[in-house]
Amino acid sequence: MKALILGGGAREHAIAWALSRSKAFDEIHAAPGNGGIAEVAYLHGANPTKGDDVLALAKKISADLVVVGPEAPLMTGVPDALRREGIPVFGPGIDGARLEGSKAFAKTFMLDVGIPTPSFHICRTVAEAKEALSLRHPPFVVKADGLAAGKGAFVVEELAEAMRLCRSLLEEGALGEAGRTVVVEDYIAGREITAMLLIDGKNTGLLPLSQDHKRALDGDKGPNTGGMGAYAPVPWASKALIGRIEEIAHGTARALKAKGIDYRGVIYLGLMVDRDERPWVLEYNARFGDPEAQVVLPICDVDWGEVMLSVAKSESLNAIKAKDCAVGVVMASGGYPDRYDVGFEISGLEEARKTEGVLIFHAGTKRDGEKLVTSGGRVLTVVGLDSSLEEARAKAYRGVSAIGFEGAHYRRDIAWQALSPKTPGKGGDAR
Hints:
Strands 3-2-1-4-5 form a 5-stranded parallel β-sheet, sandwiched between helices. Strands 12-15-18-22-19 form a 5-stranded antiparallel β-sheet. The protein has 14 helices and 22 strands. The termini are far apart. 30% of the residues lie in helices and 26% in strands.
């Protein structure tokens, strides 16, 4: 059988890697893919956000399964177009994707069905935002309603700064249509954790918990990014906490079914765990997280081809357990998430792969003749696998130390909350 993966980041490389190891599939295709995905899949130039283009490609290669990696094809209804033609898709239709595409919709959904989420106000004017902020104490949380590539959430200490943000979004169009509506919500102190849940329309399966590192610099400092690294599973998650997260996850699945949303794919729950070990849902995503997918997919003791096909076809879905630990370190271009340059040659990949238990997933890479060069902000995710989280971390950083490109930047403290919870790293690093 043949699988087609939509997208071209490290998450999609992890999916391609997982499917290439599956007994269910003989051939992997990707659109558009990247320099790393090309090692395990045939690449195509079709636009992954256009249903007609994807449908034509799926028919041309006789795809038995289409796996949607990023959010954009979900929001343009690509899965709906494919399903109408009888092609199995791992990814929700546009009705389910609204949970990610609109934070206002997601927050209202959570309120309606009793999912614990911070108290909030939906604001469409500066006057409404001013009123919502006046009801709260610092730090203030402001979120753009629409998709903003992981850069639409702001936590600020000063009321004046929160108001400036709201004006820039609502009146000045700082994030375009994504910011024409904002959500102002209560701040909850705690530790972030990610839960990803497979849903096949009937059954659910919770994947191993993971923790992302969103800030650009060590010690969780600097600007927010799309994610600078992750680890899984999460050793500090108690049985009681896991039980509460399972209740939220399965409650979300039941609510989707009750509302008539035929959700087939994975739903991402971004959670904040407060000091009383109560989890609060900060956001939903309608696909695997990035970089969480890069650490969760490799440690699951399953054939991912069989699992994704069964989800797409709404067939049996069994429990999924972790067989290892994983730590993933993102190597980014200097200056990311702000301005950065690309086109720099990447060296040391073969040397890094010599370390047993090291995987390298490409994000912003492309071929330039015989060379592999940088082409984006987040360039690589280097993953270490081991039965010990500490050793998995050591392997990941051994892999990172072997790789080089001009301006390479990465955090040196990934998994610090699990391994050294009282000593976060110091400062950032660039080389």
